[in-house]
Amino acid sequence: MKFPKPYTLKDIATIISTKYVGADDFPVLGMNEIHVVESGDIVFVDHPKYYDKALESKATIVLINKEVECPKGKALLISDDPFRDFNKLTLHFKPFQNSNTAISPSAKIGKNTVIQPNAFVGNNVVIGDNCIIHSNVSIYDDTIIGNHVTIHSGAVLGANGFYYKKRPEGYDQLLSGGRVVIGNHVDIGACCTIDKGVTGDTTIGEGSKLDNQIQVGHDTVIGKRCLIASQTGIAGCVVIEDNVTIWGQVGTASGITIGKGAVVQAQAGVTKSIEGGKAYWGTPIQEFRAELKRLASIKEIPRILDELKKLK
Questions:
Q1: What is the per-residue pLDDT across 22-59, written as a single tens digit (0 to 9) for each?
Q2: What confidence tens digit (pLDDT) does each residue in 264-289 have?
Q3: In what order do the strands lie in the sheet with 193-195?
Q4: Residues 140 and 39 grouped into a single domain
Q5: How many domains does the chain have?
Q6: Residue 185 annotated to the active site
Q7: In terms of DSSP H, where are the helices of 8-107?
Q8: Are residues 112 and 82 in the same domain?
Q9: Out of 148, 152, 185, 218, which one is annotated catalytic?
Q10: Which domain holds residue 169?
Q11: Global pTM?
Q12: Nearest CA among 206, 201, 256 for reference residue 234
């Protein structure tokens, strides 16, 4: 998430009431999670296991809960609770805005686009030309939708990501300040739920088609011309490359990549990254043909045992 204008390290430290290491005027351009940070961004870290990863990342400002040596060319924000203070920054730069109408006056709707009754279109939404938004669709703030997109009834675009920190008193949500971005010629089936990015974008590429009742997690990137069948659950921060086919009731772990042209058979559990151009099945995920051969071999065990008995 980029800020509307450049801020200084001192500005940011004042907003969240923290100490800092670096020049007062050190430039701060935005805030992002570790997998999408760029120069000028703030990243937060609150566990020793990930200190080095954060300090060595592309982020140039690290919000951290320990006084450490500041890497050259970077700055530190020292906080007793980086998770809490990251949320403070999200609330400051992306506060919740209520809506009083079904279609926000700040929304931009393209030519020949039809929005059916009882659909909701939030603040700063952009919808392209020749789209059909069916009834009871909810499109949250800042969502971007291309041309020739169809969204069927009951779909929700832009809900918060499922990202929580466990505390003694319960679970604390990491607030989502990102967006959903939908490319041209995308179809989204009934009752699909597409969560916005925590700080970046959840993206569905041009020409991709989603069946009914599909969950897409925060910051996931779905490529062009993908085909995804009903009841698939895609976790956060997943990369699905172009021309991937995913059949029904597939589930994925977070942070994995499904390679270009891969086919994932129904009810598979994608527990790890998989190469493109192959077919897969099972849990944990395996190449489809290899798994079928293995199952066929297992079925031969009773016959082999009977043969062994005859030889005795």
A1: 999 999 999 999 888 999 999 999 999 999 999 999 99
A2: 999 999 999 999 999 999 988 988 87
A3: 120-121, 138-139, 156-159, 193-195, 215-216, 233-234, 251-252, 269-270
A4: no
A5: 2
A6: no
A7: 9-16, 51-55, 82-93
A8: no
A9: 218
A10: 108-291
A11: 0.90
A12: 256
